């Protein structure tokens, strides 16, 4: 019974391949390939009296040494590779490089009719049968039989060919018939058994080791050989364990390499060999292979962690390994204090890994592992597992000496601390990402950093904690260093020495330093006028529309929450009234007008004194007051009556010096300005008369200046005349002041 591996092979029978195959077989065994016999002529049966030449061959092309000849199993002689025989028998031979050949039965018969078969014949070969009589010319018909059944009738052929014979027990014979004197005759040959030789012997399975160590490789070889006359036939091979095909089935090589043998691979092994054409399959005997297992020994547990440190929250890898041991090993991991194992793996390896994800503080302890390959578990030594935890995000706190704002010069404490993390911890302090300094906490906890504040220390502060397991940065904490305000400075705009009623005055208050926001207060004689804020620093303004009550002392105050600073007092005085027309006259025009009025006043004064001499003197009057609270207009009713009791001064003109005193007065009309002029008589004895005497004894002279009107017929170019030409002096007329 055969177990074919169904895979077609390629026919590539070469003598070289056969020789290599046979040579490799010799290396593994002391058994040599068989020798074989050749017959000349190539018939195993012949008539008695004829001779047959026997030639002994082996798988080598040239014979070496003498050949051992045998007949019916008995040693015949040693001689050359070729001998002649004329006696029946079972002949065989052997060379020095081969085993004994299959015997060839050669018969010498004295019968009238014999049946001959060609030689040599191998399994699957075609064979020629020849029915031969002593008088061939008398034979008319030949009939061939196999097991007494006609297989061929022949009338004139010399031989009959049978295809693909096999080694069976079939018997062949033939008959020959003819006619002589109208009498039909017939002869029958002796039965013949065709001698079919093996194409190749049954293969022999050989293993490189019948008791391999588990885990080691084994080489299987299926040994057989072809006779040199059939070396062109391709052989294929198939290997089995029990009844299971190994590898890919039929292969061209007689050798199969098993890379690793395991304990479960123990069993019965055998092989098959087949000729592709003809289809002849033969199998080997079974060979027992027992795989030897080595017990595990020297079990060891080690920890693998990133960077060589076991970090809380990271994965823990436990590696269990054995120094020796084969086959399937069962690994298990354990922690002291827990009955339940942590993990279990079964694999064909000397080591295994167990990964514990995201270890926590409770995972610390003593660990061990065990290994077993059916000889009992072997335990490793216990190792202690300690965890290091990375730092949490630190918290930065600022401790200041005062509850509210911090000011320049204060010493603040920056405190950086994490809630968790394995020591030692290195802390760093930052101001706007610039390192201020660092400090270490060897036993954990937090650290402090003291900072004496200057104006540059305002901004965002942060800190960093690092214990070599990763740095964590705190949130930014803003710190505002407040600078107290300096003494403010109060200024007026416009910055004139004197102002008049109706002016819009801007009070400007500003400090040179101080942190915003700053609140400014404005005071008039310590009465609050108002306040305004400068959110971004700088100064602030307060606009004031002046009235007569606004004369006096002004000041301002500045406050940014660190104390109020008060400016120095600034005094504001009024010198007269103002109208819209006067306000808009430029300073240059007023100067020119006053000059013209001075000249007119001098001429008028001379004329006035002349008139007074004729009329008997001036009427006595008081000095007018020009307080901003009073508004006076000149009277147009004419000059007042002269005081009859006023003394007449008769001092010589040479001893008298006129001292004009004048001021501009608005009579209430928009287009009219007049000047009041007083003349003082100075003598050498009394060079500076008092104002009182001057007010009583003398009437002021009055000069009017009237604004010119533009005539409708004037050309446009005249509209751009100098402003000074828009005024003219009126004729001097005695006018009285309307008091």
UniProtKB/TrEMBL annotation:
Q: Which Pfam families match?
A: Ig_2 (PF13895), Ig_3 (PF13927)
GO annotations of cellular component type: external side of plasma membrane
The signal peptide stretch is 1-25
Which domain of life does the UniProt lineage start with? Eukaryota
Domain Ig-like residue range list? 33-107, 295-386, 394-482, 488-571
Which keywords does this Swiss-Prot/TrEMBL entry list?
Cell membrane, Disulfide bond, Glycoprotein, Immunoglobulin domain, Membrane, Receptor, Repeat, Signal, Transmembrane, Transmembrane helix
Major subcellular location class = membrane
The membrane spanning regions, by residue number, are 582-606
Question: Which GO BP annotation is one of this protein's?
Answer: immune response
PROSITE patterns the record matches: IG_LIKE
Q: Which Gene3D superfamilies match?
A: Immunoglobulins
Region listing for Disordered, in residue ranges: 611-648, 680-739
Q: Which SMART domains match?
A: IG, IGc2
Membrane topology (UniProt): Single-pass type I membrane protein
Keyword check for Iron: no
A GO MF annotation of the entry reads: transmembrane signaling receptor activity
Biased composition regions of type Basic and acidic residues, renumbered to the chain: 706-723
Protein name (Swiss-Prot/TrEMBL) = Fc receptor-like protein 3 isoform X1
Q: Which organism is it from?
A: Callorhinus ursinus (Northern fur seal)
């Amino acid at each position: 019974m055969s177990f074919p591996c169904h895979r077609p092979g390629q026919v590539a029978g070469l003598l070289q391949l056969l020789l290599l195959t046979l040579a490799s077989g010799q290396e593994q065994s002391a058994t040599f390939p068989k020798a074989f016999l050749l017959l000349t002529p190539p018939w195993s049966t012949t008539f008695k009296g004829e001779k047959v030449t026997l030639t002994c061959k082996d798988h080598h092309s040239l014979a070496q040494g003498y050949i051992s000849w045998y007949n019916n199993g008995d040693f015949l002689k040693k001689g050359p590779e070729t001998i002649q025989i004329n006696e029946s028998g079972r002949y065989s031979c052997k060379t020095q490089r081969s085993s004994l050949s299959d015997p060839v039965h050669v018969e010498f018969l004295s019968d009238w009719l014999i049946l001959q078969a060609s030689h040599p014949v191998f399994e699957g070969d075609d064979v020629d049968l020849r029915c031969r009589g002593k008088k061939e010319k008398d034979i008319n018909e030949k009939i061939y039989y196999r097991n007494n059944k006609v297989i061929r009738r022949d009338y004139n052929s010399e031989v009959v060919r049978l295809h693909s014979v096999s080694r069976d027990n079939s018997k062949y014979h033939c008959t020959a018939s003819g006619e002589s004197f109208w009498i039909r005759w017939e002869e029958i040959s002796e039965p013949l058994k065709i001698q079919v030789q093996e194409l190749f012997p049954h293969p022999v399975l050989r293993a490189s080791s019948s008791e391999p160590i588990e885990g080691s490789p084994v080489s299987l070889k299926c040994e057989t050989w072809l006779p040199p006359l059939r070396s062109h036939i391709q052989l294929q091979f198939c290997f089995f364990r029990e009844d299971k095909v190994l590898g890919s089935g039929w292969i061209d090589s007689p050798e199969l390499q098993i890379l690793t043998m395991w304990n479960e691979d123990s069993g019965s092994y055998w092989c098959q060999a087949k000729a592709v054409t003809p289809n002849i399959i033969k199998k080997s005997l079974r060979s027992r292979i027992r795989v030897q297992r080595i017990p595990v020994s020297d079990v060891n547990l080690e920890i693998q962690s990133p960077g060589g440190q076991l970090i809380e929250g990271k994965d823990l890898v436990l590696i269990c390994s054995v120094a020796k041991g084969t086959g399937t090993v069962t690994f298990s991991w354990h922690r002291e204090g827990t009955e339940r194992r942590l993990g279990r793996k079964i694999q064909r390896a000397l080591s295994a890994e167990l990964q514990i994800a995201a270890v926590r503080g409770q995972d610390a302890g003593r660990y061990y592992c065990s290994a077993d390959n059916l000889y009992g578990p072997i335990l490793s030594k216990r190792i202690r597992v300690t965890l290091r935890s990375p730092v949490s995000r630190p918290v930065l706190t600022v401790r200041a000496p005062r509850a509210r704002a911090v000011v320049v010069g204060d010493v603040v404490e920056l405190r950086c601390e994490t809630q968790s993390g394995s020591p030692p911890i290195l802390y760093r302090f930052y101001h706007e990402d610039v390192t201020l300094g660092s400090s270490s906490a060897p036993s954990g906890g937090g650290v402090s950093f003291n900072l004496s504040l200057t104006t540059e220390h305002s901004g965002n502060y942060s800190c960093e904690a690092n214990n070599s397991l990763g740095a964590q940065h705190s949130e930014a904490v803003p710190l505002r260093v407040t600078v107290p305000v300096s003494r403010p400075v109060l200024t007026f705009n416009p910055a004139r020495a004197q102002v008049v009623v109706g002016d819009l005055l801007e009070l400007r208050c500003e400090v040179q330093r101080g942190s915003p926001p700053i609140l400014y207060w404005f005071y008039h004689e310590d009465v609050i006028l108002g306040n305004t804020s400068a959110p971004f620093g700088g100064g602030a303004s307060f606009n004031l529309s002046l009235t007569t009550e606004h004369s006096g002392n002004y000041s301002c105050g500045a406050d940014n929450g660190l104390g109020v600073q008060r400016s120095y007092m600034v005094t504001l005085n009024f010198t007269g009234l103002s109208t819209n027309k006067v306000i808009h006259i430029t300073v240059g025009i007023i100067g020119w007008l006053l000059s013209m009025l001075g000249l007119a006043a001098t001429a008028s004064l001379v004329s006035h004194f002349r008139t007074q001499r004729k009329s008997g003197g001036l009427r006595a009057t008081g000095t007018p007051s020009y307080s901003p609270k009073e508004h006076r207009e000149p009277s147009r009713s004419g000059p007042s009556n002269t005081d009859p009791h006023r003394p007449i001064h008769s001092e010589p003109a040479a001893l008298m010096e006129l001292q004009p005193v004048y001021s501009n007065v608005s009579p209430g009309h928009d287009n009219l300005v007049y000047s009041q002029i007083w003349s003082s008589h100075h003598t050498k004895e009394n060079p500076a008369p008092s104002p009182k005497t001057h007010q009583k004894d003398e009437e002021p002279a009055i000069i009017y200046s009237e604004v010119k009107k533009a005539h409708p017929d004037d050309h446009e170019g005249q509209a751009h005349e100098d402003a000074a030409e828009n005024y003219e002096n009126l004729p001097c007329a005695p006018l009285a002041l309307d008091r």
